Amino acid sequence: MTLTGEYVPSPTAWVRNQVEAYEASGGREANTLQGGKDPIVVITSRGASSGKLRKNPVMRVERDGYYVAIGSKGGADDNPAWVANFLAHPLVDLQDGPEPKPYRARLLSGDERTKWWDYAVGTWKTYATYQAKTERRIPVFLLEPEGQ
After folding, report:
1. What domains does the chain contain, in order, with CATH numbers?
2. 3-state secondary structure at position 146
3. What is the model's pTM?
4. Residue 72 CA, distance from chain mean position
5. How far apart (Å, rounded) are the C-alpha atoms in residues 53 and 116?
6. In this structure, is the dihedral angle defined by the CA atoms of residues 30, 34, 39 and 42, taken in order, positive or negative?
7. Signed CA dihedral, 79, 86, 106, 36: sign only
8. In terms of C-beta density within 10 A (0-12 exposed, 13-18 middle, 19 or more buried), how is residue 49 classed?
9. Residues in a beta bridge with 79
10. Could you report the per-residue pLDDT of 15-67, keeping only the tens digit for each?
11. Can you spell out the DSSP letters for 47-86?
């Protein structure tokens, strides 16, 4: 079962356009980071305050059916809005291909965070650059398939 409710497109044009193109093509188009070859997935979350559905493209970091979402925001000093959404409403939809599937997002800490952070940096080295740009500890979420 996937999330239902009112979807509010991102106010950021590139996010809105990428999500629209990705979904319309079943993930065959707009499936890489803008201007590059690095793969993305689209995650739908419920707004922490509004309860409305929000969609964000994030880097595809996957292992054995589990995904990691890194709240880097390019190394900004604040978290992306979806971090609060995941904390308030951990049931999300993740689309990696034609259909979204339900996942549960869990904020990682300790050794588990270190393990998945290292894996994410190994997948996309830019995460390490982002961490160097900010004093905040970038949140790492593990997305586990719902119902398994």
Report:
1. 13-145 (2.30.110.10)
2. coil
3. 0.94
4. 10
5. 27
6. negative
7. negative
8. exposed
9. none
10. 999 999 999 999 999 999 887 899 999 999 999 999 999 999 999 999 999 99
11. -TTT--EEEEEEE--EETTEEEEE--GGG-SS--HHHHHH
